[in-house]
Each structure stands twice: as structure tokens, then as C-alpha cells.
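Supplementary Methods, section 5.1.

A reviewer requested that the exact input to the structure prediction be made available. We therefore reproduce it here, unchanged from the version used in the analyses.
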Amino acid sequence: MSYTLGEAAKAVGKSKTTLHRAIKSGKISALKAADGSYSIDPSELHRVFPPVPSETSSERSSRNDTEQQSNTLEALRIQMEIQEKERERERALLQETIADLREDRDRWRHQATALLEDHRPKGFFRKLFGR
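The structure derived from this sequence is encoded cell-by-cell as follows.
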């Protein structure tokens, strides 16, 4: 069994360009087919480039599941932070509104109390002489 250039690149974890340069420089021997593709013997390839351990499909799927879960958790964490900031902003607005309403209430109460009090002078002579 021989590798194509793409398969060889995956087997050693290098780019196709790197392997093509190694073939052109003579570091690796390869047979070139009529269609321009290369056939690389595995022993010749691994003589120069050590093989990359291949992961099984179950390892790959578990890694993908773990990455997907961490991405989902990160997205949820960001969403929760945004919601918390929105709640804090709303809470601040409500507290500001409450403070304004209390201030208005106190002003109206003071005005009503002032209107109810009788500030006119008492007695006939006080009214007459304004004392």
C-alpha cells in the first residue's frame, strides 16, 4: 500500500507542500503517475518524517463532543453575563425612579402641610395693626 501526497501529509502531520518539496529535493523518493499524482511508499515516508499517532473515531467523536460542550457552556456563560448586566441596569433605573417619586411625594406633602397651616395673625388688634 502506498500513500498519495494528501494521505502522506495526513499520516505525518505535514502539509502537502512540505512533502512535495521533500520529494523535489530528493529527501523522499516517490513515483509520479501519468496524471501527475505521487505514490509514496510508507517506509520511505516514515524514514524522514515520523508518523503522527492516529486517533480513533471514538476518540475523535469524544473530543468533538467535549469541544462542543465547552463551546455551548461558554456561550451560555456569556449569555448569562449579558442578562445579569441587563438586570443590574434595570435595577438601577428602578431605584432611581423610586428615589425621584419619593422626592416628589415629600415636596407635595410639604406643600400640602404649608397650605393647611393658618399663618394669619390672630386677634382683632393684630389684624388691625398687622402685628
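The mean pLDDT is 86. These observations are discussed further in the main text.
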